[in-house]
């Protein structure tokens, strides 16, 4: 046999969630094996019996990969866990077996639990290319998943990752399906229900396409990248934490899918419900409140679709043994004043401090959500949750609890102040605010630099129903860098996101 | 403004049809702009006003890209046509505008001509990532295209590329939808109809996943990579050529789509019909014969589906002003004896030479197709085409014409002989051949090295209906390299592709 082994080399290129391998064009195997760029190959190391799948790029520069070497990008090199210089063999990777199920889905067939499990396991071990993942997601989105398929998918996702157990009868969580800027209710709900004594170990995401996730905003106040010891300490002493969930191994497939969903801006109901419910069950939650905002620029735009989604959440939640409630909320405009980590953290602290400038809509929504969660406690009478939540907030006990949590997580030494570059966007005519475009405002705040620049974002001065005079400021753009500032200003000049009805 | 320009650098990595840009992690722009790996960026050169879209990889090695540089992979560097060291600016690339139409298709909507035109133009200028292309293709495959959408898509594809004009009333072509190994009828049809005096400027593809395309097989005999002057000479003096169409600018989008279709092994009827018809119209054809083989391992497996596809071809062809005929043929097994460039070229030449070992099925099919094309000539009576084709072949005039074409294209100095490593696959029991698996035989020939090794492939000794004794050879595997030889042998041991019914 002419086939020889290649020497493994780490190539310092970050290809994110895609495994890329590099082979020199003069490598003997390149020609004899008929490899082509973008082929999928399987890399095997006999030394420790591991193997990994990667997409091939062909290299003409020996400073990147020499003819006798096989280069691996950072991600796949770390997965492979074999040292540089080790002897590896390469072969054509056959398509993952479960791709046949994906083709059946594309043809409109209904898949079984075993199909979803096989697909998710193959994705988790990086056997799917980005193209194959896109085919899977789009196939599911277009053909649709019936509710039993969503349940199969949920179970499959749960079985693919690790699972936490808290050994408590009541572990609560909340989740908003997203799309509403400034919607930082978790940072209010967690201290309120933890102060009541409920266990609420809250992990949150960082923003991907939005101007801030709860983890980004919490990070303004405290460390969110916490090790298991600190998490355990927080649960024992505070009954809660507000941590970043990113490094957990609870939902390995989700992390991979998102790399494809993000550029596609795709969110199909089946994938969304399965992803949320499986992640919450994996995190050990027993009781879950789902927030579905409705509005013309929210993810869900009609009562009919919200009801369909609610039923799907209920069916899957019940079947998974979760106590799940759905609340449908007003998603016509951003919640609170600030959009962007620092501005949102300011709003949250003002609500906790019962500050006169606290945004009332954020306060009200947080109390409603907290009230519903408090009623998961059998000792709380139906209908009494809201009042109980309000008492905890108004008495200052919620603020104290938040301060304890911040101290226990490690208070940030970050001095929070909104971005130094400021631009006021003014009303072009007098009238009443009729509508505010969530997507456009999120985009403006994102262009201004949020969430990477925590100080960047948008601070709203007017909400729906308010009247404005001509040239009265609608909102202020905050940024730290000129380039971002100019991008955000330009976007607001094209479309300032506000619709104003002139008063007759 | 903090934003500065970067120095362009060519990175010698072949990323095939995907544009990849490399930025060092310490590049000032990386942090301030909030770039992430797999983001799409737009690279602009003020010097000559060009811009290009690429997917970002982050680099930690200055030997690949330095912090003050922007690296571009081979493909995108060549597209960009700006010299190394030029000053370039980078910015976040917004999603191509036409992606909204893709999302409408995914939601099941019908798209208009303007939508397909916008999508194809954006794909042609490399604004779509592989993920976005996959979403488009899968969306079309699952939602389906009605026949007017296929027509819109055909027109859009035609408008996206260049177009040839021959200034003749009758320019003929044929196209087989593929999937049948050994089906090299074009190399017989072209000399027959050109000898009759018809203009048949035939461009063909190289094999992608199959063991040989017509261009691969013709290359055994003659040069197929021809410049416009030679093509013009051939048209004038021979009325035909058999060239590789790969470098033409007639179908730029097709070349890009195939990089995604290939790993997905996807072929939706709408995309297929639009791609074929637009390419033929772009090549200046006025009359087109489409060959649809049916068989259990062909692309089309039922008469119903073949009829549907025929109607679709007819509707689109008529609407585009083509004279289009469809012929439905027997696709139950490979055509001819050889599979792989050298073996197929041998079969073709034997038919032309009226050699006693010429495969009768290849000869018969070629005569039928040529006969139908000859009847596009108004001077040929309906039903007389076949006899006319047979006369041209049997008289040796087709062979002479082929030899003239070969000389004019530049005869190959390649000494054709089948691969030196040979292995006979024998029948495990006596009986009659019931079925032959096209896909498995194509796979075995491909593993043996075809089409990269022109000598590699499979030579069939038995076809459907033949009787065999136990241990009688069914076919011979030919290869040039041991590794390929062993892969092919292993595949034939797992499944030899023959189904034999024992005789009672």
Your description of this structure?
The structure is a homodimer of 504-residue chains. Chain A has 504 residues and is of the alpha/beta class. Helices cover 41% and strands 20% of the residues of chain A. The first copy, chain A, has 18 helices and 19 strands. The first copy, chain A, has helices at residues 28-32, 74-80, 99-106, 113-124, 130-143, 147-160, 186-195, 214-221, 228-238, 252-264, 269-282, 303-319, 341-352, 360-374, 385-394, 397-409, 438-447, 482-494; strands at residues 6-11, 13-14, 20-24, 40-45, 50-59, 69-73, 87-92, 172-176, 200-204, 240-244, 287-294, 323-330, 338-339, 421-426, 431-436, 457-460, 467-468, 473-479, 498-501. In chain A, the strands form 5 sheets. Chain A has a 6-stranded mixed beta barrel with strand order 1-6-3-5-4-7. A 4-stranded antiparallel β-sheet of chain A has the order 13-16-18-14. In chain A, strands 8-11-12 form a 3-stranded parallel β-sheet, with helices on both faces. In chain A, helix 12 links the parallel strand 11 (287-294) and strand 12. The radius of gyration of chain A is 25 Å and the shape is globular. The termini of chain A are far apart. The model of chain A has no long low-confidence stretch (mean pLDDT 91). At the A-B interface, strand 2, strand 5, helix 5, helix 10 and helix 18 of A face strand 2, strand 5, helix 5, helix 10 and helix 18 of B.
């Amino acid at each position: 046999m002419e086939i020889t082994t290649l020497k493994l080399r780490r190539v310092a290129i970050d290809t994110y969630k895609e495994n890329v391998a590099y082979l020199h064009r003069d490598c003997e195997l390149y020609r004899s094996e008929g490899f082509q760029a973008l082929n999928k190959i399987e890399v095997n190391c006999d030394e420790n019996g591991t193997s990994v799948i990667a997409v091939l790029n062909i290299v003409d520069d020996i400073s990147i990969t020499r003819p006798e070497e096989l280069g691996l990008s950072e991600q796949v090199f770390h997965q492979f866990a074999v040292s540089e210089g080790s002897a590896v063999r390469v072969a054509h990777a056959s398509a993952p077996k479960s791709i046949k199920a994906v083709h059946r889905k594309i043809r409109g067939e209904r898949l079984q639990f075993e199909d979803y499990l096989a697909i998710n396991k193959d994705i988790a071990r990086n056997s799917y290319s980005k193209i194959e993942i896109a085919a899977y997601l789009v196939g599911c989105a277009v053909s649709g998943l019936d509710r039993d398929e969503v349940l199969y998918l949920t179970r499959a996702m749960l079985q693919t990752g690790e699972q936490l157990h808290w050994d408590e009868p009541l572990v609560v969580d909340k989740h908003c399906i997203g799309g509403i800027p400034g919607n930082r209710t978790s940072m209010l709900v967690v201290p309120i229900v933890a102060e009541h004594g409920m266990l609420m170990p809250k992990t949150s995401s960082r923003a991907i396409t939005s101007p801030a996730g709860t983890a980004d905003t919490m990070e303004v106040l405290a460390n969110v990248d916490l090790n298991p010891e600190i998490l355990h300490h927080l649960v024992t002493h505070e009954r809660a934490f507000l941590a970043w969930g990113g490094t957990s191994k609870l939902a390995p497939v989700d992390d991979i899918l998102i790399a494809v969903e993000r550029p596609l801006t795709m969110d199909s109901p089946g994938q969304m419900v399965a992803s949320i419910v499986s992640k919450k069950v994996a995190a050990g939650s027993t009781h879950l409140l789902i927030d579905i905002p409705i509005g013309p620029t929210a993810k869900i735009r009609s009562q009919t679709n919200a009801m369909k989604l609610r039923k799907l959440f209920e069916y899957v939640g019940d079947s998974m043994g979760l106590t799940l409630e759905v609340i449908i909320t007003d998603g016509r405009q951003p919640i609170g004043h600030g959009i962007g980590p620092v501005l949102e953290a300011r709003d949250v602290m003002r609500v906790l401090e019962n500050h006169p400038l606290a945004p009332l809509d954020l306060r009200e929504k947080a109390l409603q959500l907290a009230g519903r969660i408090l009623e998961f406690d059998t000792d709380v009478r139906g209908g009494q949750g809201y009042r109980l939540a309000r008492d905890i907030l108004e008495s200052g006990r919620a603020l104290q609890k938040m301060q304890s949590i911040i101290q226990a997580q490690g208070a940030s030494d970050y001095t929070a102040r909104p971005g130094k570059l400021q631009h006021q966007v003014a009303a072009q005519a007098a009238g009443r605010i009729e509508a505010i475009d969530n997507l456009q405002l999120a985009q403006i705040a994102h262009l201004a630099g949020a969430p990477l620049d925590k100080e960047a974002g948008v601070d709203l001065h007017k909400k729906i129903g308010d009247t404005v005079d001509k040239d009265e400021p609608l909102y202020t753009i905050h940024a730290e860098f000129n380039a971002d500032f100019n991008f955000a200003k330009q976007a607001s000049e094209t479309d300032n996101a506000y619709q104003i009805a002139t008063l007759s």
